[in-house]
Design brief:
The chain is built from five helices and 22 strands.
Length: 338
């Protein structure tokens, strides 16, 4: 946008400029970190009035353009040693900014909703939220100046005031929905299917009752589990979205352990199914060709309970090759099909 300073002494345009050892030059692009614009923001070597305040800075995230005619008038008014040379310079003054997250406003809105007869800890939805800009690093102070809440529908209209260091207070009008909420475990970021969850992947947030999971899960129970489907950032994670991480893949070579009093026997087997810790899967004993039920105990490891009855044995005339092929297992490199 083009900027017209509130007070410009245009009659001073033809004043004689004082001599200066260092002539002034207009800047090109200036990033402002002050709520006001000073003469030095427009010119280098602006002279004794360099700190003179000319007007307010543009709002955070906005910019203004000062053209050649305005620069010439300002230079003449404040005895800046510069005159236009026909090059038509302009100065762009920009105020940096960052978008204010709706989450920052939710707490203030929820408090005002409760004071107006709404539910405590309401979940706030702002369908048409256009984020205002505030200075980078600023900590905003948010105040609800008026609240019109309908307890029957949960709809509200709110007027707010946002203030922060480095900006003029800014008014904001918002409409939205306030609903009763419950705490729930949600994804901290987008989760892909098959991800093993850690503490950084989940957080607790309040969700509207309508979005609460049917089978809620705690963070302690979720960490270490695998997502069975993709979960969007901020969406609820339920027990139905999680599975035990696969520690033994179908067709993998497995170390089978049989523990007896005073004795532990190990053997090599081929997994005929996949599973995580505690899962019971069929495993083909590579030595006896018997298929046993084994409990997954770790990566490519499983245990056989003492006294377990094999599902199939070599005496059942079910050879290793036919059974393995029927279940999609591979031959171990050291074995030959019978």
């Amino acid at each position: 946008m083009r900027w017209n300073f509130p007070v410009l002494v245009f009659c001073a345009y033809n004043m004689v400029q004082p001599a200066s050892a260092e002539p002034a030059f207009p800047h090109t692009l200036v990033t402002l970190n002050s709520p006001v614009i000073r003469l030095a923001d427009l010119f280098s070597n602006a002279g004794p009035q360099a700190e003179r305040v000319l007007g307010p800075s543009p709002a955070p995230g906005m910019r203004i353009v000062v053209g050649a005619d305005q620069l010439a008038a300002i230079a003449a008014a404040y005895q800046v040693p510069w005159q236009p040379d026909g090059s038509q310079p302009q100065v762009v003054l920009a105020s940096p900014g960052r978008a204010l997250s709706a989450a920052v406003l939710d707490s203030a809105i929820a408090g005002a909703v409760q004071s107006s007869g709404g539910p405590a800890d309401a979940a706030i939805t702002l369908p048409d939220y256009a984020a205002p800009m505030i200075p980078p690093g600023a900590v905003p102070d948010v105040t609800v100046t008026s609240m019109d809440f309908d307890p029957g529908t949960g709809n509200f209209d709110a007027a707010m005031m946002i203030s922060a260091a480095g900006m003029a207070p800014q008014g904001l009008e918002l409409s939205g929905l306030a609903e009763a909420s419950v705490p729930a475990l949600v994804a901290s970021h987008n989760l892909a299917p098959g991800e093993v969850l850690n503490a950084a992947d989940v957080t607790i947030a309040r969700l509207p009752d309508s979005q609460a999971p049917n089978a809620p899960v705690s963070a302690a129970d979720a960490i270490g589990m695998t997502t069975s489907i993709g979960v969007a950032a901020g969406a609820a994670i339920s027990a139905g979205n999680l599975t035990t991480p696969i520690l033994v893949a179908k067709g993998a070579t497995v170390i089978l352990t049989l523990t007896l009093p005073g004795l532990a026997v190990t053997a090599q087997g081929i997994a005929l199914g996949a599973g995580g810790t505690g899962s019971v899967i069929p495993v083909l004993n590579a030595a006896s060709h018997a298929v046993v039920q084994a409990v997954v105990t770790g990566p490519d490891a499983a245990s056989i309970a003492p006294g377990s009855t094999p599902l199939t044995t070599a005496q059942n005339n079910v050879g290793y090759g036919s059974y393995a092929q029927a279940h999609g297992a591979a031959y171990p490199p050291a074995m030959v099909q019978p």
